[in-house]
From TrEMBL:
It comes from Leeuwenhoekiella parthenopeia. Pfam families: BatD. The chain crosses the membrane at residues 439-458. Residues 1-20 form the signal peptide. This is BatD family protein.
Length: 580
């Protein structure tokens, strides 16, 4: 009797132990599959848990799931429980892929599955079920990439257009992008489709409908054979099956498929070396070239703008404009870029310009020699060079130069030194008392005393001249004050006033924050001002002034508003100076 009782207790304890042991495993439908096949993954547990966390499925696209199923059974006095989370995966590439660990919490303990390695081979022949809507959809939906030119020159524009072809028996209910081409060897710009329009066309000789998903403008930045990466989509469709309803119509069933445009290659030709001009800086396309001065007659210390611009169709954002060669007596500031460029499927078009601010220091005539601009025209496969006209800057009033071309001193310069005596009497009338006198020793010792001062000031002058950054900031500050004065003079003239005020604010920022015009976003300005101790209120006032200058281009402003903006600018600049 005691022996039977012991056996019964052992069986009960063994059953309890078996019941209490937690199992959490990952099982796959196959460990080797083709890139065009799908994989089923089941995460099974023998006890219920919480907070199930699947792996990331890196290298796969989840095309179905998670599906959850629960099973409870009682067989021969033994209870069993099973809970399963199922996923359907589509591999994205061939090679060795790994399904990571899934996690779940059971009775306060976290359990993890073991990683599972999957081998993905190339595409394999898959038996086709004629009633499978995914099979029918794959045969009736195609994504293609059309390239406008297969052999462009370096920096010559061409387009790639992605079209989705769908047969008339299949309908698409939606799609999402899985892989986007990166265009790493191209300057690229996507042309957004404002609305998707359905066109009639043909694919492999059969009638299809198609929609243009994306147009991308490309400028190759390398020569040789370049690859255009594919675009891949997950598409939800309703595809016909071989089954028919009671009226004889084919039954449509929903399905999700992955389609990918084939990889395209282009062979980029280098620009010819023969006949390449020295003035060529990389412009490819067709252009007009112009050099203009805002004024050719002015006084010394006045400013004029010299604008160098290239207009046309080509790689406007991808080349440098030529620099002018100006007389050394003209003070020239860093140029400001002005671009008005539109991007379409035909390429970039518009204007790329640089505006130089020039301030003459002395009276005279200053020639600005012709400037050459060269570009390569892919249509004719030739280089072309355009030249500007010579511009003469006539400075009418101001201090004259010390030497003209004929090496003669002008009358104005002679008058400046009229106070110097041409015949100096250095010998005292009292011949006997000059040597050894105070004047004698003063004249003898003064040069010796001046030598250290000359050396000191010479060093300071060289440091000042070598301080390129400081000189640029001082020039910008000088221009800011000048333009603020111009704004005051043009009160009542809206265009001239706000143009001068905007130049004042931009040059002030250059001087105080050491930034360029291209960096002057509102967020950047606000960040730099506040980092340097300027209050939020003062920063907001400065940004509001910039907005007023922008709005003035489109909306009229009264004299009262202009006076208010001028007073506000003077106050804000003063406040920032104090706080900095």
């Amino acid at each position: 009797m005691k022996m039977q009782l012991k056996l019964l207790l052992i069986l009960i304890f063994s059953g309890f132990t078996a019941w209490s042991q937690v199992e959490f495993d990952a099982r796959v439908s196959k460990e080797t599959l083709g890139v065009n096949e799908r994989l089923r993954v089941d995460f099974e547990m023998n006890q219920d848990g919480d907070n199930f966390r699947p792996p990331s499925f890196q290298g796969f696209t989840v095309v179905g799931g998670p599906n959850q199923s629960i099973s409870k059974q009682w067989v021969n006095g033994r209870a069993s429980f099973s809970k399963t989370f199922s996923y359907f995966l589509q591999p994205n590439a061939t090679g060795k892929l790994k399904i990571g660990q899934a996690e779940i919490d059971i009775d306060g303990t976290t359990y993890k599955t073991l990683p599972v390695e999957i081998t993905v081979t190339g595409a394999v022949d898959v038996p086709k079920d004629p009633n499978d809507p995914a099979v029918a959809a794959a045969e009736n939906v195609h994504l293609v990439a059309e390239v406008s030119k297969s052999d462009p020159y370096l920096n010559e524009a061409f387009t790639v257009v992605y079209k989705l072809y769908v047969s008339r028996e299949t309908s698409v209910t939606g799609w999402n992008e899985v892989e986007a081409p990166k265009f790493s060897d191209f300057w690229n710009q996507s042309i957004d489709e404002k609305q998707f329009k359905i066109y009639d066309g043909s694919f492999n000789g059969k009638p299809y409908r198609y929609v243009i998903l994306r147009r991308t403008l490309l400028y190759p930045q390398k020569t040789g054979e370049l690859t255009i990466e594919p675009l891949a989509l997950n598409i939800n469709v309703e595809a016909p099956t071989n089954r028919r309803d009671i009226f004889g119509m084919r039954i449509l069933r929903p399905a999700q498929i992955k389609v990918s445009a084939p990889t395209r290659k282009v062979k980029v030709k280098p620009l010819p070396e023969a006949g390449k001009p020295e003035s060529f800086t990389g412009a490819v396309g067709t252009f007009d070239f112009d050099v203009t001065a805002s004024k050719t007659k002015l006084d010394a210390q006045e400013a004029l703008d010299l604008t160098i611009s290239a207009k046309g169709n080509g790689n406007l954002k991808l080349f440098n404009l030529p620099k002018p060669k100006l007389p050394s007596s003209l003070e020239v500031y860093e140029p400001e870029n002005e671009q008005d460029i539109r991007v379409s499927v035909n390429g970039m078009s518009g204007k790329n310009a640089q505006r130089y601010t020039i301030v003459p220091q002395q009276k005279g005539n200053y020639p600005i020699p012709p400037i050459n601009f060269s570009y390569f025209d892919p249509a004719t496969e030739q280089y072309k060079t355009l030249s500007s006209d010579e511009i003469i800057i006539d400075v009418e009033n101001g201090p004259a130069t010390l030497a003209q071309n004929n090496n003669k001193v002008p009358v104005e310069a002679q008058k400046q030194f009229s106070y110097i005596k041409s015949e100096a009497n250095l010998i005292s009338k009292n011949q006997e008392s000059f040597f050894g006198s105070t004047i004698f020793w003063s004249m003898l010792g003064t040069p010796v005393l001046l030598i250290p001062l000359v050396i000191f000031f010479g060093r300071k002058r060289r440091e000042y001249q070598n301080d390129i950054k400081g000189n640029r900031l001082r020039k910008a500050d000088k221009l800011a004050r000048k333009y603020l004065g111009d704004a005051k003079k043009n009160l009542g003239d809206q265009t001239a006033f706000y143009l001068a005020l905007e130049k004042c604010l931009h040059n002030y920022l250059k001087a105080r924050l050491n930034i360029q015009t291209s960096e002057m976003s509102k967020e950047r300005i606000s960040q730099l001002l506040q980092e340097r101790g300027v209050t939020v209120e003062t920063t907001a006032s400065f940004l509001k002034l910039l907005e007023s200058c922008e709005f003035a281009r489109y909306t009229p402003a009264s004299s009262v508003a202009m006076q208010h903006d001028y007073d506000q600018a003077s106050q804000v600049i003063s406040d920032i100076d104090k706080q900095l």
